Amino acid sequence: MTMVKMKRIGVVLVLIMVVVVVSEAAAAARRHDYGDALTKSILFFEGQRSGKLPPSQRMTWRKDSGLRDGFHKSIGESQIGIRHIDLVGGYYDAGDNVKFNFPMAFTTTMLAWSVADFKPFMGTEHQHALEAIKWATDYFLKCTRMPGVVFAQVGEGFSDHNCWQRPEDMDTLRTPFAVSKKFPGSEVSAEMAAALAASSIVMRTSNRTYAARLLSRAKTVFDFANTYQGSYNATLGKWVCSFYCDYSGYQDELLWAATWLFRASKLPYYSNYVLNNIHKLDPPYNGGNFAEFGWDAKHAGIHILVSKLGFANHLQPNPFLINAEKFVCSVLPESPTPKSVSYSPGGLLFKAGGSNIQHSTAISFLLLVHARFTSGSKRTIQCGNVAVKPNRLAQVAKRQVDYILGDNPLNMSYMVGYGKKYPQRIHHRASSLPSINAYPRKLQCQGGTSYFFSSKPNPNILVGAVVGGPDINDRYSDSRADFPHSEPATYINAPLVGLLAFYKDH
């Protein structure tokens, strides 16, 4: 072979390689339809609705459920019970049929934060997001309308978890559980106040009267939570602690709620409350929880949000900004500082406990919020000897979103209904059982057992549901019985809404 021919072949090979690289880059650029994923992530909440469904219901295989919620004897107030209060509505938190108000309130706060910060990128999904928020806030207004009482839960978890039954067929105990002045529950009450305050912000442009009502109620509920301090673990632990026990204390929820109330009202009382009480999160203002954020611990969220709002900027040093960036550095893979997370070989962020993608979405949301704040303030984050620019935080967050949508070793989307390959046997009663349209007769408590153990895909597609996700080695078994990995939850989706809205336009 002559040197000329060899050179020509070399040129051709280089051109082929360039074409392949460009093609792969182009494919990567168009790989995910973030707009489609956003639509589906919000639609999921319609599948979780409890109560009388509206004519606009799009997930039509779901029907009315829980229409007698609140009309059973409650537990909590003086332990004698309250009867006949309308507690219809709200959301089932995951694959069961109980309304756990603590994680539901966090879900609502995060949905509202998603809209408050990312509304310009939501397009036509903005209205659907508001509807998802209002479905929760209408219910929370019911739960907080009795002075000195806040309802913390509807439904008895143990009897519910003993059944595999459609929500439309429920004959399990629908006991309402309340906290009160005598039997306080500051974490659930304060988180509800945060949800109401955050939601008031996003409702102002469409319904100022309703927004004002939400803010007024948020103030009242916060005052109740703060005046009568105590954890609902002490009174309702028997019923809540196998499901949503408060492990981080309630001071974080009080500070979190006050921060949202300041953002909603601009009243100095709430910023002063945060500044005067931050020491209660354990010296130096964070203890071992500076990097925790989710339905239980709000620490990292408080630091990120206060840094963004800027009312602590006069403090030198500013403990909120210090801890916000300490949190960021504990997440970034290249940071030399101690890590608060680990990563799977395929790149999924991990923390201890089940339903891991809840951590991926919540932490990624905070990274993106802080990236936009630091970009606006032209600030560089210093992680040890590594300088981190804001766009790096957005890249790390996007990597998590892309992993969830299918850029992973299994080439599998962990959002039901998105992409060509996604979980088929999710741990979800309504999805796994035939709909009333297909099977009008009532399914008794154990009537769905055979469907639970079936290897067939779920008959109803819970579009937009994001499951707990793979294990630390990127493996996923797609089994209903493997609930830490196959169960969706509202608090997984809520932060993802904001992330998807942003990446849809960026």
Automatic annotation (TrEMBL):
Keywords: Carbohydrate metabolism, Cellulose degradation, Glycosidase, Hydrolase, Polysaccharide degradation, Signal. The gene is LOC110782265. SUPFAM superfamilies: Six-hairpin glycosidases (SSF48208). One of its GO terms (molecular function) is cellulase activity. It catalyses: Endohydrolysis of (1->4)-beta-D-glucosidic linkages in cellulose, lichenin and cereal beta-D-glucans. It comes from Spinacia oleracea (Spinach). GO terms for biological process: cellulose catabolic process. The lineage of its organism: Eukaryota, Viridiplantae, Streptophyta, Embryophyta, Tracheophyta. Its EC number is 3.2.1.4. Residues 1-25 form the signal peptide. It comes from the Eukaryota. The active site is at H427, D478, E487. Belongs to the glycosyl hydrolase 9 (cellulase E) family. The keyword Cell membrane does not apply. This is Endoglucanase. The keyword Lipid biosynthesis does not apply. It holds the Pfam family Glyco_hydro_9. Residues 34-500 form the Glycoside hydrolase family domain.
